[in-house]
Amino acid sequence: MDVLFLLYVVSATFAGLSEGAGVLPADSLNAAVGRTVTFTTTLTPQENQFVAWTFDFNNIITTNTTSETTAPQYEGRITLDRFTGSLQLRNVSLTDSGEYRVSIISPGGGFYTGQTRLDVYVPVSNVRVTANSSDLIEFNSSVSLSCSSSGSSLSFLWLNSSSEVTASDRVQLTDGGAILTIISVTRYDQGPFRCRVFNPVSNVTSEPVNLSISFGPDNTNLKPSPSQEYYVKGSNISLSCSAVSRPAAQFQWFLNGDLLTARGPELRLMNIQMNQSGNYSCQAFNNITMRTQTSQPYVVSVLERISGASVKSSTNQPVDGNSVNLTCEAAGSVFTRQWMKDGSDLILTDNMMLYNEGRVLSFQPLKKKDSGEYSCKISNPVSSDEAKYVMVVNYGPENVKITGETLIYLQETLKLTCSAESTPSASYTWMWNKTEIISYSAELTKVITELSESGNYTCQAMNNVTRRTLSAVHELTVKAERPPSCSAGCIAGIVIACLVVVGAAAGGGYYIYKNKKMTKKSNRDTDTRTGGGGQNNAGFSGSQELNYADIRFFQNSNGGAVQLGPQSNPSEYAQVQVNSGSPAVSSLPTYEVHMQRMQIPAAQSGTQTYSQVRRN
């Protein structure tokens, strides 16, 4: 039976029967030396199967229903599952690598075969990375890293930190990837570098290796504290310098290109003075790469506070028409000067000019309208100060005038007043007929005693600052006595005559007016009353009316309005009588009766003539 089975298997193998082919997985199996491998079939378990396994056509094990035969070299290393035909191989070695085949005959006569490959590997171990140099200079040095390990069928993978290293212009992988060469290293090639070695059954990563790469200095930067455009004299400043460098850079300082004695990353400027203004820079130096780099300059501008501002005039007594300069000065760092007049920005006119960077305000020439308060504000970015100057322009005298009488009589007092526009106030000298000095004040007062004092009175005004003079002439006539004036009787006669004339005119007009009025009234009353009743007018019958005209002329010598007031002189009356009927015997009212009926304003003082008409 065993012989027949073997013959059947061999014949089936060489005949290439396809029935039942593929009972083993198509993929090969990998195993590490000393490990266990199981060749698992895909058959459903059955009893009483005939199974035969071979390795490179050498028998491993054969079985039948009653016995099994195992090759000596596999004794104790294999186990066969007779129900499925699967084979377990233990403690594999490199010599176990090869082709494995199985043939199975089922009790029902089915015939199955299968084949697969087993590859046995030595596991990876002892992975180590070494560098041919560890002290490198950026851009100047190259380095080779070698990866050594134990195992079989090894592959290599390099890692820089966590990133895979691949070949490039600067990176070379040789000896199957076991050697990594970096040409012209950079600071980014410092690592850590690791070598990962692997085969189908294991992988091991080396310990990290770091490269010491010197680089820099780069990004040299100067930082001030505090940072500002201008610094006040006497303040403190700290300048800090930094750079990207390995090893750490050394620093030295420069002012306007000149090397300072200070060393180190910080420069302290205490109680800074004006002569310390300038361009500061720091230079970083790497004593391994032997390279240097200088920072961008930082400008330190030291300013002195503005103090002691003043405005001074080129003359103590400015005179209209002369040239005058106002000079604005101050201690400290002057940036700007701003001129103002009377609290407002100064507007230059045609006689003004600013020069010397606004330091001098020049008047050419000075005018009297230039008087006022001038201020100059001096400033810089850290301070300011202001000074004021009151400009009093001395001018004149101008517009000299004399006021007073031009006609005077003997024994009367002459009073003449002289005035002039002048700063300061002018002094005055009076002369008579241009020769005799008679007074030194603005007012000339004297009693005229001689007719010969007629003539030209001259007032000379003088400004003691401008040293200018100007005169005015006043002509005076002296007469012996005033002409006689009209007496009281003369005036009364004139008034009476005027009253008579005006009264007559007024009476005539009034008579005509009343006559027309009474005629109309008589016609209206004819049918309503009997008899010729009339009014009682102090003894006059009803058909008679008596009117008094108090006539006065008002004439004001200056043409102004005239007001009436109580009179002290009796009035002259013009009697106007209007008869509307036959005259009756009667008498005129007395003056006292008339005065009781009216209040008569008195004549006003002064030379006034007036007319007053009243109807009673």
TrEMBL record:
Segments spanning the bilayer are: 491-513
- Secretion signal, residue range per the UniProt entry: 1-20
Q: Report whether Lyase shows up as a keyword of the record.
A: no
Superkingdom of origin:
Eukaryota
Q: Which InterPro entries match?
A: Ig-like_dom, Ig-like_dom_sf, Ig-like_fold, Ig_sub, Ig_sub2, Ig_V-set, IgSF_CEA-related, Immunoglobulin_dom
The entry's keywords: Disulfide bond, Glycoprotein, Immunoglobulin domain, Membrane, Signal, Transmembrane, Transmembrane helix
Against Gene3D superfamilies, the record matches this protein to: Immunoglobulins
Q: Where is this region: Disordered?
A: 521-542
Asked whether the UniProt record includes Disulfide bond among its keywords, one would answer: yes
Q: Where is the Ig-like domain?
A: 123-212, 217-295, 297-394, 397-471
Q: What is this protein called?
A: Carcinoembryonic antigen-related cell adhesion molecule 5 isoform X1
Species this chain originates from: Lates calcarifer
User: What is the gene name?
Assistant: LOC108880677
